[in-house]
Amino acid sequence: MTVTTSTIDDLIKNQNPFAGHIVVRPQQIWGKSFPDVPLINAHASNAVFDAVDKVRKGKRETVGITITAEKGLGKSHIISRIRHRLQTGDGSLFIYISKYDNLNQIKSLFLQSVASSLRAFGSQKVMQWQEIAAALINEAKQWEYTPQQYINMYPGWLSQHSTKAIVNLTESVLKVKPEITNPYIVKAILWTLSPVHINYASYWLSGLELAQSQAEEMGLPNPKSEDREAEALSTVRQILDITSYYRVPVICFDELDIADAADNGFLAAQVIASLVKDLYNSLKQGVLLLAMYPRTWEDQIKALPEAEAVIDRLVSDQADRQPIKLSFLNSDDIVALVSQWLQDFYKEHQQTPPHTLYPFDEIKLRELGKSRPTVRSVLKWCAENFVPNVPIIDKPQIHPVHSYFNSELANVEASIDSLMEDQNSIGDALWLAFNSLIGETLEGVKIEEIEDIEASAADEGYINFKIIGNDWKVRIGVAVVQQDGRYIGAALNRLIDYNKFDLTRGCLVRSKNINPGAALAKERLRILLKEKGGEWVGLQSQDIKLLLAILFVYYNRESYELTEEQIFEFIEQNQLAINNPLIREIISDPSGQEPTNLTDDGLPISIPQSVATADYIELNL
Predict the structure, then answer these.
(1) Which residues pair with 512 in a beta bridge?
(2) 8 Å CB contact between 235 and 109
(3) Burial class, 520, CB count within 10 angstroms (exposed 0-12 / middle 13-18 / buried 19+)
(4) pLDDT beyond 90 at 373
(5) Using CA atoms, how far apart are residues 353 and 291, in angstroms rounded to an integer?
């Protein structure tokens, strides 16, 4: 549809497709991505596709690939391309790790990341866990049903046979796969096809503990706390070996260039490189991909003990034993990149521009290529110069944070379900909001300081921060807890220990009911609410969205070239914190009651009585 340039110019004034997309977010790796030009740095992505093909055809068992590039050159863009290309076929699984919260427990963290990644949808529009479960059943029973057909049939089987249905299917799988040594992993994978049990199954597969009643009903033994880290790598190997019967696992480690260190002194990239070496040696098959800065490779990887052995596995297919290097953009690359972004933008808004690069000038874009820029710098230039080619009279002054905030908010909206499980990000969002309120008086409390919790290794991570107010008379410990099982009880145990953590009030922030079968957690909750004068604030997605969006702007402020002062100014001008219902509820006097607006994620498992009849077959036990 051809429209006048005035209509397009009005659109350009209000929509900027480049703003907020300078930094690639994990949600864009998994979900809706951004425009991609496959020819840019095709040598890097093609190396991964070729490796997957070799493993699939049995020419290689395991391949290690490392990509190095300077900051902003497009490492995460390449990873997103790989993920979305692999998703179009059914021969691989994609696993992505970019957060390393506890390097001292990297095996447990890796297991949780694998389990979380396999919850993402694969080529058959169901979770990757469910694709593997269906493949296991099809081989064991010599059937040819799709994952969705099994999802439809499971309620009927469970209604008719109860949990014996899963026991029967597990035994059938083990008969054809006798080399699998842990039957409970198979059982948990098969549980993922039950709509009622998928969350519990994937939670258990993460190495986390279910409420005892849930674990018993599903026939899954809870891990022992003292053995959890030791068992994690063994568990993840078995999971990956099971998945590799049917798919080539592609395991990607991103964002390795952080300064965090483990207790042994190794930095994140070094810890992950050692883990990848172990995986390379032990996995039945797979492709291991790492992305880092060249300086990280030179200063950290080459400095490892037994560096030669590590490097041999991190660049296993490179004849020169060097990482694959990304190239800076040339003029043709820039024109192709900007053209693709604009093509998608105008198509989405059903408009036809005067030319494919409108409102930019091709000569000016090509001039940018003379300096061999990064992808990030080109997108930033486009974001700053995306204005109509007509004079704008009395153009209102737009806050520099505004466009980035709107873009991040769109990303949050698109991935809010997964973000509601990310208790670390939610805790950080609340921390940022309260920091912006220092000096303000809210609900009778003058906020004077936001303090980190001083805790031993055993207590670390359970309470997010402490709000100090009214000349230290108010000291509120805030704990965001979305996990279930033993974790909720452990968090509440810390939250009621006012003496140890110097609190006058404990505040639990959580969106879910606590399982009535979790007796210890329920007792600690009673103590918090009835004896300690604490509070449970119900977490609602609509209350946290804006705070998460500004948090992600804050995370990426260096890339966006924003200052902390500008971000806090934006929060204040738009009253993102001071008028937020969640913030006000946390700081207000406690009610002593459980919230009423909770979800039922933590309630006991029940088997639905309704039987899905589509494609239904009898399961003979």
Answers:
(1) 599
(2) no
(3) middle
(4) yes
(5) 37
Q: According to the model, what pLDDT value does residue 5 have? A: 62
How much is the pLDDT for 396?
55
Q: Note whether 154 and 193 are within 8 A (CB).
A: yes
pTM tops 0.90, yes or no: no
Strand partners, 261: 267
Mean pLDDT of the 452-479 span:
90
| pLDDT on residue 614 | 39
What beta strand segments (E) does 393-547 contain?
A: 441-442, 445-451, 465-469, 474-480, 505-510, 535-538
CB neighbours of residue 603 within 10 Å: 16
**How far is Cα 240 from Cα 119, in angstroms, rounded to an integer?**
14
Q: List for the chain the helix, strand, coil content (%; round to 5).
A: 50, 10, 40
Phi-psi region of 497 (alpha: psi -120 to 50; beta: other; left: phi over 0): beta
Q: Which residues contact 522 (CB under 8 A, 6 or more apart)?
A: 514, 516
Q: Rounded distance, CA 367 to CA 378, Å?
A: 11
- Given a contact cutoff of 8 angstroms between Cβ atoms, the answer to whether 527 and 496 are in contact is yes
| Among 394, 396, 383, 399, CA closest to 574 | 399
Pick from 327, 325, 323: which is nearest to 65 by CA? 323
Highest-confidence segment of 111-125, 127-141, 217-231: 127-141
The C-alpha atoms of residue 96 and residue 241 are separated, in whole angstroms, by 17
Query: For residue 600, what pLDDT is reported?
Result: 66
